[in-house]
Amino acid sequence: MRTVGSVTTVPFDDATVRSARRLFDGAERVLVLTGAGVSAESGVPTFRGAGGLWREYRAEELATPEAFARDPRLVWEWYGWRREVVRRCEPNAAHLALAAFAAGRAGVEIVTQNVDGLHARAAHATAAEAAGRRGGRTPGGARRALPIELHGSLFRARCTGCGRTFEHDEPVDARSRERLPACARCGALLRPAVVWFGESLDPALLGAAFDAAARADVCLVVGTSAVVQPAASIATAAHASGARIVEVNPEPTPLTPIATVSLRAAAASAVPAIVGQHENPSP
Ligand code: NAD
Ligand code: ZN
Question: Cβ distance 6 to 192 under 8 Å?
């Protein structure tokens, strides 16, 4: 037994790892669905509970369109702070193993609820490493490792005027309303390109995620409590279309009863074990 945060996990055994690996070996299409837990070992704060407060505010008070309309400076100040906190975090072994898995074979789609950009950073790191090995040529598989970010990203912004979305990862100067990021095209105020409480998910991204669910032979669910909708229903949709569910989570979730394999383990140790390269392929 060992302790991950406040959770005690039973070490996963070789037989469980082998049965998960066999599912991936036999699968043509794999959907990977991740939540906050995949980034826990990178040190990304959850913004929940006593330690998760920023000043006196709860996330629910700042991550809303109403809060932004009332006080965009305050909301940008918070997002600027979150950006800097997450920038100091690194993709962990789970993000890296998933990026290598998706880049290395066709038919793997990564869908995340996280806004921390760590899957994308892992994809770029994997591509850079592979390009180094191949004399500077970026392998075609690198793009495949980029995730569908259902809830957006801390490192993108969207124009409140013309609606365009930009990569936007520079430090935010939130000392006054006038200094807040503005659109290079139309001059209107930019906002963080994340989905706030009370907002809908991008239908195109959601459609792509449900398409991947309908096609998947295996759905690997990592570090999500599977209670936030509609993301949680993506896994059940995959299951309803015939996919086997593999779950990695130190705690049971509503998906556990339908999972073919459940690893009660932390992502950074379990995910590389089940999707990493075979050093001694098991029979
Ligand atoms: P959640 O907080 O509801 O659940 C996290 C899950 O991760 C729990 O089931 C927990 O048991 C599990 N977990 C904890 N440590 C783990 C580890 N080391 N390895 C594997 N699993 C571990 O998170 P959620 O389901 O993603 O939903 C929360 C919402 O909050 C989402 O909408 C998400 O966008 C947002 N959020 C994002 C981030 C981020 O971007 N990193 C962080 C916090 C919250
Ligand atoms: Zn604009």
Answer: no
* Under-70 pLDDT residues of the chain: 1-11, 47-53, 136-141, 278-283
Determine the pLDDT at residue 99. Answer: 97
Closest CA to 208 of 121, 109, 115, 140: 109
Compute how many other C-beta atoms are within 10 angstroms of the C-beta atom of residue 72: 18
**Ligand 1 pocket test target in 2, 46, 60, 154 with most atoms within 8 Å of CB:** 46
User: Under CATH, what is the fold of the domain 45-88+153-194?
Assistant: SIR2/SIRT2 'Small Domain' (3.30.1600)
Minimum-distance ligand 1 atom for the alpha carbon of 151:
34
Q: Which residues are near ligand 2, the ion (C-beta closer than 5 Å)? A: 159, 161-162, 183, 185-186, 188
Domain 1-44+91-151+201-283 has CATH 3.40.50.1220: yes
Q: Write down the pLDDT at residue 201.
A: 95
